[in-house]
Write a structure and sequence with these properties.
The protein has helices at residues 11-32, 40-58, 63-96, 99-110, 113-131, 134-151, 156-173, 178-187, 191-220, 226-239, 248-258, 263-281, 283-290, 296-309, 319-324, 334-352, 355-365, 370-387, 393-408, 413-425, 435-444, 448-451, 456-470, and strands spanning 312-313, 326-327, 476-478, 484-486. It is an all-alpha fold. The strands form two sheets. The chain has a two-stranded antiparallel ribbon with strand order 1-2. The chain has a two-stranded antiparallel sheet with strand order 3-4. Strand 3 and strand 4 (484-486) form a beta hairpin. The chain has two domains: 3-76 and 335-486, no CATH class; 79-332, no CATH class. Helix content is 74%, strand content 2%. It is globular and about 75 Å long. The longest helix has 34 residues, at 63-96.
């Protein structure tokens, strides 16, 4: 159809697919519970995309444009999908080589239930700050911390919340992070001005988070005693050759990321090194996984391959330890890949039909004060995390849409860039069908809705940004001579 036949959607038309999605997702969660991510939510996303496509076609938009939007949206998520698959293979070879078991073994001797949640959050924050990647932090250190916490008797939802909180603090504040560079680019400010300004809301948020985790630790008390931990240590050391030399592999991966080596080659190197270290340090595990005892070369090839592409496990005489020593490889990530693709189909149709833009335009009209403008921006970012299912779109689209409004209100770009991070970056992981939420849940093996109530930093951040705006704290404005003034 020609462009003259295309009309803009009304707010009611634009919101129909979102309402449809929200209702059916709620029904799915009620009926299927945690199993809703096994396929029913994917189907709901595709059905919601169908509703959005019907609305778009009624607006005069041709099918080719809708299909192009779908392809473009999925293309934007391909990097995340490839990283997710590599994380699956990395988890496999790091189990096979004894890297993750060694982390659990040594961690159990250092940490205790009282300080574990605080320590997990702080360590995750430091590693993520250094590497600039919450995904890499969760996939490596996070998996080990989850094992340690489970061995200490701490609920997996709490452990996941602590890891996610720390990882996203570091990701948000690191100059190496892609979202930390993307937000100021969309708002029109520079990286280090953005980080300095971001610190005003981010540091109070993480302090509150750490206080909550500390209080939770004291309230829980020492649920595990040294006598409880000793059988776990014996089961791990009895199955694996535990040595500090294994930490060379994660050290190399962290070093590569700090040197700005892209995530894909860095994770691939970590995966291959894990396989090599398995052959060197865990020959008996190689034979166990491969089932071959008379040809070590063949056994090594089969075991490393299996670790990368499918589920492997190591059996001990301790039931709880057995639940830690299992991984799904790339195949274990395929359900999450399916979810991401389904979500990007929905987001692509919504964007190509102009439906997302129409909804956010209505939001802007309601923003009359600085506080309401920041609140509108934050909730728009959350809205895009819910509907477009992509962290980057939750920064890019609101950034483009609100930039001129902030400028007209006399607000400098760092106000917008800070809000994009507070509202977009950290809330993406709280949405089960978002690329971030689906990935982290799959990597940790903890459903999103299970760690969501304990991801305090991610929950607090957008409200902290809104609070600062309404209280007029650290709000930077243009003066007549275009110099900035901060209140």
């Amino acid at each position: 159809m020609g462009s003259n036949n295309i009309r803009k959607p009304t707010f009611t038309e634009a919101i129909i697919p979102v309402v449809f999605l929200t209702v059916l997702i709620s029904v799915n969660v009620y009926i299927f519970g945690e199993a809703s991510l096994d396929g029913s939510n994917q189907i709901v996303l595709i059905m919601s995309a169908t509703v959005a496509a019907i609305v778009s076609l009624r607006l005069g938009i041709g099918w080719k444009q809708v299909q192009s939007g779908i392809v473009k949206s999925i293309g934007n998520a391909m990097a995340a999908i490839l990283i997710l698959l590599l994380i699956g293979s990395l988890a496999g070879t790091w189990l096979l080589s004894g890297i993750v078991p060694s982390m659990i073994y040594y961690g159990l001797q250092i940490l205790n239930p009282t300080i574990f949640l605080v320590a997990a959050c702080i360590v995750s924050a430091i590693v993520s700050l250094v590497t600039g990647s919450s995904w890499s932090t969760v996939a490596t250190l996070g998996v080990a911390l989850l094992g340690i916490g489970k061995a200490l008797g701490i609920p997996v939802g709490m452990i996941g919340g602590a890891i996610i909180s720390g990882a996203y603090f570091g990701d948000k504040m690191s100059p190496l992070s892609d979202t930390t560079n993307l937000a100021p680019a969309m708002a029109g400010t520079d990286l280090f001005t953005h980080i300095r300004y971001l610190a005003w809301t981010t540091i109070p948020s993480i302090i509150i988070t750490l206080i909550i985790f500390l209080l939770m630790g004291f309230n829980r008390g020492a649920d595990s005693t040294p006598e409880d931990i000793e059988p776990v240590l014996e089961a791990i050391s009895g199955s694996f050759n535990i040595t500090p030399w294994l930490f060379l592999v994660p050290a190399v991966v962290i070093f590569l990321i700090t040197k700005k080596v892209p995530a894909l080659p860095a994770l691939l190197i970590g995966t291959l090194m894990g396989g090599a270290f398995a052959i060197i340090f865990q020959p008996h595990i190689i034979e166990h996984v491969s089932g071959i005892t008379d040809n070590f070369s063949m056994a090594s090839y089969i075991a490393v391959m299996k670790a990368m592409y499918t589920e492997i496990s190591v059996d001990t005489d301790h039931t709880m330890v057995n639940s830690l020593l299992i991984t799904g490889g790339m195949r274990g990530m395929l359900n999450t890949v399916w979810l991401i693709i389904s979500a990007m189909i929905f987001g692509g149709v919504m964007e190509s039909g102009g439906l997302l833009q129409r909804i956010t335009q209505s939001v802007i009209k309601l923003a009359n004060s600085t506080g309401s403008l920041v609140a509108s921006t934050a909730f728009t970012c959350i809205f895009f995390n819910l509907t477009a299912s992509d962290q980057y779109l939750s920064i890019v689209v609101p950034g483009r849409m609100f930039a001129s409004t902030y400028k007209k209100r006399g607000l400098t770009p760092q106000n917008l860039s800070r809000t994009l991070e507070d509202g977009g970056t950290v809330t993406s992981v709280l949405v089960p069908w978002n690329t971030c939420g689906a990935t982290q849940a799959s990597v940790l093996g903890v459903p999103t809705l299970m760690f969501l109530p304990y991801a305090f930093f991610n929950i607090i951040s957008p409200f902290m940004s809104i609070f600062f705006a309404y209280m007029n704290i650290r709000i930077s404005r243009f003066t007549n001579n275009t110099k900035e003034k901060i209140k």
